[in-house]
Amino acid sequence: MNREVRKAQGPKPGVESLEGRAVLSTVSAAVIAPPVSATADAPVATPVESQQAIPTALVRGASYLRIEGSARGTAQTLAHNPDVGNTVVLLGSGRVQGLGQVLITGKLHGTGNIAAGTIGGELTISDAKGNLTLKLVGPTARGFSAPKSGPYRFSVEHGTGSFAHEVADGTVALDLTAKTFHLAFHGSPNRY
User: How do residues 92-118 score in pLDDT, each as one tens digit?
Assistant: First the structure.
């Protein structure tokens, strides 16, 4: 009896390289040695009042970029299903300290068919050296609220080119009209 055995074909396990990725949510504990007993050769170590955790947001190869500047351009509201909320598309240009003239593109998303939600979106800052995409988190609003003017928090979602290993956060003041926008970036100082 000649029986053929068939092996199941499926995804094969593999390993992905994590090199070049910035880990933004780790904390390293700074371990402090306990006090040492006094001897004739060594004095008593000063007691430590508390042990502190040192944030390690800046992983090897990453650097902090303080984003300061302003931009203006056109805003266009996209018509679509109101249950998912309005989307406003932004296209403009401006100046960012340390980068010079930049192109700004992005989208803001309103709330849809929910009791309350957060208005948010993303902005991309582009220059000849690469792109930096920022995640925007805006105010809490009732359901069916359109994106609006006001302060938004930003943080780096990802970057390309020379911005591939940048981290940044801060606020952006947005002035939004029916057809235009103006924004001012206020980057947080490097806390690391």
Answer: 999 999 899 999 999 999 998 999 999
Which is more confident, 34 or 17? 17
Query: Quick one: 81 exposed, middle or buried, by C-beta within 10 A (0-12, 13-18, 19+)?
Result: exposed
Please check the confidence at residue 132 and state whether its pLDDT lies above 50: yes
Q: Specify if 149 maps to a domain.
A: yes
- Please count the structural domains in the chain: 1
Which CATH number covers residue 100?
A: 2.40.160
- Side chain identity at residue 192, one-letter code: Y
The answer as to whether 23 is a domain residue is no
Residue 83 is predicted with a pLDDT of: 86
Range of the domain at 153: 65-187
